[in-house]
Amino acid sequence: MADATAPAAAVPSNNPEADAPVSQEAPAAEDQVAQLEEEEGAEQVEDAPFVVTIVLPHESKTFEIPVSPLEAIHEIRQSIIEHPIAVQYSCFHLEHNGKRINDFVQVSDVEGLASGSELHVVEDPYTEKEARIHFIRIRELIGAAGDRTDTVQGILSGASVYDDVVAAATEEAEADVQPYDFEAPLKLSSLLPKEEKDAAPKTVKLISLSPWNPPPAPLRQKGHLLYLTLTTNEGEQFQVTAHVGGFYVNNSSNNKFDPSPKQDKKGASAHSLLSLLEKLSPSFAQSFADFQQYASRKEPLATFQIGNTVPSAPWLVPEATSSLCAHIADITRSQETFLLGGAENTDSLRDWNEEFQSAKELPRDTIQDRVFRERLLAKLHADYTDAAARGAVLVARGEVAPLNPTEEIDAQIFVYNNVFFSFGADGVGTFTSEGGDEAAKVATGKDVFGVKLVNQLDIEGLYTPGTVVVDYLGKRIVGQSIVPGIFKQPEPGENQIHYGAVDGKDVVADDQSFAAPFEKLATALRVKKHAVWDKDNKRFDLEASVEMKGLLGTDGRKYVLDLYRITPLDIAWMEEAGPEGAEYPHRMTVLRPELVEALGKKKAREYMTAELRKRGALKADAAKTDEAEGTDDEKFEHITKEDAKPDAAEDVEKVEEKTEKVEEKAEEKKEETTEEKAENERIDMSNFQFALNPDVFSGQVPQTDEEKEEMAKDEQDVRDACKFLTETVIPQLLQDLTESDISFPMDGRSLSALLHRRGINLRYLGKLASLSDNTRLECFREVCIREMIARSFKHIAAKYLKTLPLSLTSACFSHLYNCLLGSGLNAKPTAEIDESYRKLFSSADLAFEEVTPESLREEVQLETARRFRFTLAENWWSQVRALQLLRETALKLGLQIQKSNFYFTQAELDAAPAPTPAPAQTNGQASAETTTSSSSKKKKGKKARDASPASVASANTVPHTFSPDDFVNVVPIIKDSAPRSALAEEALEAGRLSIYQNQRKLGEDLLLESLSLHEQIYGLVHPEVAQMYHTLSQVYFQLDQKDAAVELARKACIVAERTQGLDSAETVLNYLNLSLFLHQRGDSKAALVYAKHALGVWKIIYGPDHPDTITTMNNYAVMLQSIKAYHESRRWFEESLRVCEKVFGRQSINSATLLFQLAQALALDQDAKAAVDRMRESFNIFRTVLGPEDKNTKEAEHWLEQLTHNAVSIAKQAKEIAAKRVRAGYRFSSRGVPVGASASAPASKEVPGKPTPPPPSLGNRSIDELMKYIEGGDKKTGGTPKKRTGRGNPKRRGGAAA
């Protein structure tokens, strides 16, 4: 492990202030700095990693591992377990000089442990838990564990296609560049890993728990722990006893129980199960080595277990027959609950609340303390989120009994695995006035976000319960850790709540012991201390919203609950009239904290500006005083010169001494002046205050005139915030997008992230779409409309799913999707419900059956009008991109859909290729051959399903786009409250700042330290780590460390795929970054493959012609030029220009820049005439828009002259060679080479004409020189100067070559 304190300790010694001149009057301070540097240096030496030797038992094998003095011994233990030659050990302790070392002490605490020391691995006796863990580990290690069916993580969760892309890059590197088909249909297969061509080598036939488990009491007394059954590859079966001393073959059989050791030649024993297998099976060692080699073919990060986050579940999964999701027989799969939890299942029961609060109370004094604390909290949050999500799924399915079964369903509460569950609905009428169930559902989402904010602030003395919100099959379920005392009935006259509203808002509590921690929270959240009144009009001054409650737990801790109202209501939205008959569904329309923070910063800037203006007036008076006194520097300079003249009466030494004293005084005076000036220029912000009252417009009634005046002022502040949102933030966002200063969002998730960063609520999507009325914002408008439709459909689907049994949900999904997206193929779809289920669930509400495409469209239009105040176009369903909408809705509902060729219209079906006949061995099932799609690969002889794309070939069925079989799984959508690591982010910011200040070495150390902290705290596979890899790769690229940049970008791709999605916007950007870095490193062919993969995924996410693809296609074309694929490069420039014209228009500077580049590409492709035409067009646009004197206009004019000159020369040569032969698209050669000849071949004759002064004439350049010129070798650019260029701006045409 990297030393966590070394870079941090190095910060003070590298501070630029440390190198500043120090006054001679303060030698003590200088000594202090030197002493501090010596201490830091000593600390760094003391904390430096060193190497120790690990000695294994039995064969006395040894290996060396590096350790850090700050590491705990249990971390070294884990390193040993993962070492290739020590994989068989899991139950052991370490000894040094014959003394046992505690697993939880630090390396530095072990006496005598230093570089070169030996640590001995000593085997321990097993406990039942250790035996179970060892058995699970060995099964995983030898590849004997089958597939797992996971209710939370879904099918193929955490998958990566990186290895497949690498394989494609390796393959294409050896082949010529193939023409790219820009019109090719989307390849959904790029979202799925490829199937393995060969199966993994088998190490054993079977290894499982024996039916003789658990050991009887007398044998348990003798040390028996488990009984196992294993069958070797040779076909021999053995019964094995797991004993406290290890594993041995016993005398039992399937029919006879005799767990005593076998004494014949088949008898064997070993401390490790892996060692026992080697003794029992002659082929095991070789097959295990083969298996390890097979497993190592994959990138380690792509197979690394995900422990600290929920892995991404793909919305598209392979067919049921695919080997990727094949269901393998494994008797131990059903025994895993026992193996993980023990016979009493006590291992999995945890007191979540106590664990959370104890972790928060851990010390945070040193960096190592903070690392340990934040790592523990990250792991705790991950474990809790997983447990809460699993419990919520069981609650939603009706598998957990409620604590109050007599209540209405929405009011029922549950406890499972020490997590308290309730529904996100208004079961007890708390939100009746706010919008009922709708308001309650929104409040739970706001609450988990509020808890996350409070956890991030990490205020000492204030605690939050673990909180997770899960959306599953139309139900919203809240999982919270059980706060001690939450279920305790208060004594008469006491309130359960100690701060904030009790029993609605009728009673208000204000226990002053809560005031101090709540004040800290309010300050951080910019919440104003304000008055509220109870039902008796009694005034209470609260630090936070009256809805936010403080509870004193029976453990003595102060808990904050109900954090859904930490910001004020968006009163402007509530007062604005929506479409007629489409009232907004609730009143929980609060502003976002990001908006309040942005407004606070704006107010602070205004305050500083006002202060500076005040000082401007004071400085004018001060200037007069300075003039009267004269400058001290001039006086000192005059004295110095006069006194420095040698006089007959004065000695030279005296003169020098006097000069030094004068200079010293001048320096002191100068320092004092500088300090005084800095002090004067520093603005005191202590008088600046900005905070909002979150309880305005929420029913509070002030009593006195003074209170009414204060309330009116608070209300105006909130109205100003609403005005800031609508009149400043939203227009600024649209302006930034129009100017290409920021990237356009690709899908709903990136759109949400963009809006939330700016403090814009998603209810403003309709307003944003309405304001996006120019061609440059067409993409943004489309993404907004698609997101509104997807969210509306999500709410509609939830309504039908909420009370539906799990077995009927696939039928519901298929019918709703056929109505939404499949009406172009079948205008009157019918619901496909198994009749046996209809009878079985006779009381189920099957209202979804009645849905028609027309009624669903009306519902979507109504929901869009209600929630976003936006009116969809008349034929919106025919304008929307079906596949992209399918993806958006599937991600929002947690759907996993089986891969198929989805036909959304009759035209698509007619254009589809005929289905491939099934193999000959179909037992004569001809009808199955004709009706089963090759893409579906259905089981032989199975009746063709209505929604199979190829089923339309059958005359007896009506085609449907979807069938229930397509919807194979639903995963829960989880919102957690886990905070980010403050320590890791501090190191990252410090590193960036150091590099910005030209302290490169320190900056790099801090960035590496930040990376180490991210990996320590979050683990290797986590979204935050992916973001860190991405950020650091860009920093290293800018520092010209290309190899490091490529390696980090590669890791960013894999981790983003596994945690954020194979088709997430982050994954696409990471692949594009990797492509760019590879090109810069000189590996352009591999770069092309990564860029092509990213573009393919991009088309699935958004569709064709996204504005930001202009830059990507430009970069792709430049990469092609670098490998001399000039014709293909030209095609990519043409495609980039086509998209640019669509977005920016033909007469824009963007198009002019691309025309300039295209002309150069045409020149390289030896199409002289077309090159001249494009350059002339570029020149005309530059001249019109920028004027004739602009450098871009002049450069285009120069190129136009040269290209024209060379085109004429080539035409003359061609005429001389073949006067009667007409050629379209002559290739020009800069040295007069005949068409078709190599550019490097000797020229037949020089091109006439005199070279022009720099830039040199094209007439004296080879093709390679021209290419170098185009790629920037001559420091020319055809771009236009602008304050800032965005990713989507084609003016950055050198992006791939910069």
From TrEMBL:
The keyword tRNA-binding is annotated on this UniProt entry: no
Residue ranges crossing the lipid bilayer per the database entry: none
Region: Disordered, residue numbers: 1-44, 615-680, 913-957, 1233-1298
Clu domain boundaries: 330-574
Coiled-coil residues: none
Pfam families with a match to the protein in the record: CLU, CLU_N, eIF3_p135, GSKIP_dom, TPR_10, TPR_12
Role played: mRNA-binding protein involved in proper cytoplasmic distribution of mitochondria.
Protein name as catalogued: Clustered mitochondria protein homolog
Species per Swiss-Prot/TrEMBL record: Podospora australis
Lineage of source species: Eukaryota, Fungi, Dikarya, Ascomycota, Pezizomycotina
Gene name per UniProt: CLU1
